What does this fold into?
Amino acid sequence: MIRAALNAISLWAIPVLLVGIPLVGMIRKIKVYDVFIEGAKEGFQVAVRIIPFLVGILVAIGMFRASGAMDMLTNALRPLTTATGFPADLVPLAILRTLSGSGSLAFTTDLVKRFGPDSVIGRTAATMYGSSETTFYVLAVYFGSVGVKRTRHAIPAALTGDLVAAIAAVAVCAWMF
Amino acid sequence: MLNYIWFGLMAIALIVAAFNGTAGAVTKGAVDSAKTAVEIALGLIGIMTLWLGIMRVAEKAGLISLLGRLLRPFGRLLFPEIPPEHPAIGAMILNIAANMLGLSNAATPFGIKAMEELQELNPQKETASNAMVTFMALNTAGIQFIPATMIAVLAASGSKNPTAIISTTILATSCGAVAAVSTAKLLQRFFPYEETPHVDVTPDEVTK
It folds into this structure.
């Protein structure tokens, strides 16, 4: 029931907003098209403005992954994670998730195929992917869009959230499935 | 901090490449990633233009500030320094709502709009304000109700019950969001916003 409602909202939200917002504007006697154009003009600059930030972050992450440093990191963390009961197969995913959206998607898909879509590992991997965001990409895009360079405690806070979400995914899935 | 992480990732890559003999792969990784980054940014132009236009209409029609006033308790709790009728609050709510519904196309322009509004209230344009960091904490937590991508992956692999992960995802992402926002709030005093005297020594070296 709730799921059907949520799906319907996801499906209809965009067209309804695209028509509904200008409709309210029309009622309020706003020149909706003129105002739309005025705001839309910024779109190009914003996209171009984030390019340097995005190139910087993605290149560093791309080099890190390509060198094999990622595998070394997960191997190094393995004893720690086995001691805490965190499934070893999911360690790379937990790290990759914050760094690379496409990389973690490929990794999750592989885990699901290897262990089966209804296995605990498969479901935990899917939960882990779904419960977090590509932190460094998000930070590069949003801080880049306004030119903020000193991010203060944004990275520690975001990574704490990612760590907690990953642990929670494992715990919740172990309990539910 | 980003300076260290950025340099660290690349330096480690070089050292590891020396041991693994993966220098070629590292070169390819760098070149490909640069290309991907530009493609992502350029790919945003269309939706960004569309939504920033619609957002301006919503703002002029008073819808954005209405949203902020409707959800005043939320704004006051998370962003005490932002006035509730300020468009930043409305834009942040739209961003979070779009994320929750899995509408990532719309979420990014809303979020960027929110950052621009927050930047207007931010006296030091190159330093993140507390509100910005809290907003980023919420955003990087990736709160969503329907993990559509993962449901599709599970379904494509022949799962009998691909939607089983909805409840676990909501639980896990909520834990992550609460942890991220609490950490942001707890840490803000340890990362002072005001940098020591605003002299002309490279400010980057003062606060890390």
Q: What stands out?
A: Chain B has two domains: 1-43, 50-205. The radius of gyration of chain B is 20 Å.
